[in-house]
Each structure stands twice: as C-alpha cells, then as structure tokens.
Specification:
The protein is an alpha/beta fold and 476 residues long. Helices cover 38% and strands 22% of the residues.
Length: 476
C-alpha cells in the first residue's frame, strides 16, 4: 500500500511538472506566435473630402507578416456590406495562407495591402477602385484590382451591361474605340495579337470600369492588352462618344456631378477614331519609295503627301534606319507605311538562305526598335527573291508595275513623264527617295495625280481596296 501510494505521489509530482512545463511552452509559443503574426489595430476616421464617408483602417505589424487594409464606409448598408465582405475575404484568405505557411522568416515577411481610390462620388453613383498587393513568400508580390460601382438612386451595383442600352451592340463599339485608341501608344501596339484579344468585344474584357462625371473609364489588368511588365492600363472614354449606347440616365451630367473636381484621366478618348477615308470607287495608286530614309529628300516627299492628304510606302534599308531612326516616326505620323528592303541591299538569291533571312530579320528589328512599328511587307532588292526566301521571311512580298528607272535617269522631268504616262488605277509605282531628282519628281507627281482624281494609298491600303473590289492582288 505504502509503495503504491508513493508511486502515485511520484506520478502526481511528474504530472504537475509536466503540466507546468506545458504551460511554459504554451506561453512561449503563444508569445512567439503573437510576435510572429502581430496584433491588429483598428482605426475609423472621417474622410476629409467627403462628409458622409468614414475610412476604416486595419493595421497589423507582425514580425513575420504585416497588413494594412483601408476601405471606405458610406452608411449605406448594401454597399458597406459588399465593401466589408470584399476586404474581409481577402484578409481572411491572406491570414489562412500565412497560418498554413511552412517557410516563414523575417526576411520573407508576408504582406497584404488593400488600398482604394475614390474614382467618382456623386449623388447618383459612386466608383471605388481597390488595389490589393499581396506577398506570400514567392519571388514577387502580386497586384490585383477590383472596381465597385454603385447606383445610390436605384440601390444597386452596376455591371457593364447595366450602363448600356441592351439592344445596342455596345461591346463592339467599346472594342473599336479601345483598340484604335490604345493602338496609338507605341509600347502597346507592339504586341498586336494581345492588344486585339484584350480589346475584343467580350463582356469580360470590359468588366472593370468606373462610371464618372464626364467619362466611363475602363481598367485593363496587366497582361490583358499589353505585356505583363507594362503593368495595368486604363482608358477613359468621353461620355459624348457613347451617347448612342449609354443609358440616358447615365448621360445626365448634373446628377452625376462629382463632389470634388474630377481629375483629368491619364489616357482618354475624346473623339471617335476616324474611319479610313478610302473610297473603293475612286481610282487608286500606291507610290513606293525604296532605299531610304534620307532626311532631306524623304521629308520633301512627306510634305507633298501631307498637303495632298495622300499616303505612300517607304521600303527602308536597315543600314540607313540606324543613321536616321527619327525619320521612321515622321513617315508613320502621316499615315504612311514602312516596308522592309533588307539591311544593305544585296541580291538575296545569291546569298545562303540563312544570310538572306538575316538581312530581313535584322532590318525588321531595327525598324521595331526605332518606331515600335512592325512592317508587314518586304521588297527584295532588285526584285530578286525565291520561294525559299519568301517562306522563311514569312512576310508579304511587294513588287511594282511602274518603274521610271529614276536611280539611273536622274532627270526629274523624264521621271515625271514616265510615271504620269504609265499611271493607272490599281498600279504600284517604284521610285527612290534618296535622290534629289527623284524627290523633286515625286512632289510634282503627287500633286498631279491628286489633281487627276487619284487617291494615293499605301501598299496595304491598295491590297485592302482590291479585296473590297474582289480584284486579285497585284503581286504574289
Ligand atoms: Zn532598292
């Protein structure tokens, strides 16, 4: 009995020690955990810009994780519930990821930042643009944006389809305006397939927007319309451009007047993109100029084109683009086209295939680097090419019908006579913009052909016209 008692008492002692130890370990763990995940501080303050708005801030500055969450409250239950549930769900997800993480450390501190921008706040509606930055141990953090639009008068959230008149083809119009506007930005126009896909007429592409006083602003997340490293993009479209598709109540400026002055949008469309003024019924000629650019002579031709509202195509040499990269922008500005004429003008059929292709590819890169423009047409020097080269290069080959041999003749009047006497609807004329005699001739030819009722078009435009008229393309 005694022995047994003794055993029990020893057992009792051990359990007390173990119990105490467990408490100590638990306390230490709890303390460490507190330090690791920190404690949340909540702060609510009045917005200084908007008297009915409160700003809620949740901050936690732990050793291994931190977050800062900001959101507005409007004393409008439906709207506030949505905002709070958005912020809370992002925060809860972040906390869960942190608590399940196995690789936490001080130099890889987890981070969450939710911030917002009051893009628009009027009697009629509000638009809040949330940006969330999350870092959970990967190489890079991720940024995500969400815009909430709420109509105070209808007591409802607004999706894209709620803004527009249902029986109109509003997506097509948004797609058209957005594509042509973003296309003007050289950094965005580089990746044509992405830009086209990201602005195609789908609800998804136009799901992020803010209804503002004078504009409807669209948000495109990184990698929707341009490469990921270029970041998210925006385009604000002036409401007057949307008047035939926007619901009349959202056109009303007085109801939609912002409580503070609406800032000017970063990128905006204020007039409808002009449709090509090509007239398929008008006789058309494609003037083409090879071997340039050459500042003095090329500029003379560009001026004459501008005066006559005409376009032409310049098949440039890579070796010259290197010297005069700025000329390419001048060419493109007037609506002209740039084509590829090899790097330094060899007869490509005499070169090994690899070198022939390199001539074209190097030039293509130089043109892209100088102007952001990617030529679609290639003109082989001396017109000399073969199937292997054409296939490897993968561009449209552009030859000509009218050749005044201006490089040899060097007499303006003879060049003019030759071109004018051979001019006819649908023809492509070959000249060289590096000779003074050719430039002088070109200026006269441009004035004269325009006077005769021709529209001067690029090689791509001529192809387009022929397609519309169902005529075969001139070459290839
Ligand atoms: Zn040439």
């Amino acid at each position: 009995m005694r022995g047994e008692l003794k055993v029990v008492s020893i057992k009792g002692k051990w359990s007390i020690i173990l119990f105490a130890l467990a408490i100590v370990i638990g306390a230490v763990a709890f303390f460490q955990n507190q330090q690791a995940s920190g404690t949340e501080k909540k702060n609510v303050k009045q917005d200084t810009n908007y008297k009915n708005v409160e700003i809620v801030t949740l901050v936690n500055d732990g050793k291994f994780m931190r977050y800062a969450v900001n959101y507005p409250l409007f004393h409008q239950k439906k709207l506030d519930d949505k905002i709070q549930s958005y912020a809370n769900s992002v925060l809860e997800h972040f906390k869960k990821t942190f608590s399940e993480a196995k690789d936490i450390s001080e130099n890889k501190r987890y981070e969450l930042n939710i911030d917002y921008d009051m893009v628009h706040y009027a009697k009629q509606s509000v638009a809040i643009h949330f940006t969330t930055y999350t870092y959970t141990g990967q190489q890079k953090g991720t940024t995500h944006s969400v815009t909430i639009n709420y109509d105070f008068q209808k007591n409802t959230f607004l999706d894209t389809e709620d803004l527009f008149q249902p029986k109109t083809n509003y997506l097509k119009k948004l797609s058209y305006i957005t594509y042509t506007e973003l296309q003007k930005d050289k950094t965005l126009s580089k990746d044509q397939s992405l830009l086209q896909k990201g602005t195609a007429s789908t609800t998804q592409n136009f799901s992020q927007f803010a209804l503002k006083e004078n504009y409807v602003e669209f948000y495109f997340p990184a990698s929707q319309v341009a490469a990921e490293d270029l970041g998210p993009q925006t385009l604000a479209i002036k409401k007057t451009l949307l008047k035939d598709i926007l619901k009349p109540e959202y056109m009303n400026k007085t109801k939609n007047q912002n409580e503070i002055k609406e800032p000017n949008p970063k990128r905006k469309a204020v007039e409808l993109p002009q449709k090509s003024k090509l007239d398929p019924n008008k006789k058309s000629i494609a003037l083409t100029f090879d071997d340039g650019p050459n500042p003095e002579t090329t500029s003379k031709i560009l001026n004459a084109l501008k005066q006559n509202k005409g376009h032409a195509t310049f098949f440039v040499l890579g070796s010259r683009v290197q010297y005069y990269p700025g000329m390419l922008t001048d060419i493109l500005k007037g609506g002209n086209e740039i084509g590829n004429h090899s790097y330094n003008h060899p007869l490509l059929t005499r070169l090994p295939l690899k070198q022939a292709v390199k001539q074209v590819e190097d030039t293509q890169q130089l043109i892209e680097k100088a102007s952001g423009y990617t030529p679609t047409h290639f003109r082989p020097p001396y017109g000399g090419t073969n199937q292997d080269i054409n296939q490897a290069v993968g561009m449209k080959v552009s030859l000509w019908d009218v050749d005044p041999e201006d490089w040899k003749i060097r007499n303006s009047q003879q060049i003019i006579n030759h071109v004018l006497s051979h001019a006819a609807d649908g023809r492509t004329v070959l000249m060289h913009d590096i000779y003074e005699s050719s430039a002088r001739a070109a200026v006269k030819i441009i004035h004269e052909l325009t006077k005769q009722g021709y529209q001067l078009v690029t090689v791509s435009e001529l192809e387009q016209l022929k397609k519309e008229r169902n005529e075969p393309a001139p070459v290839q």
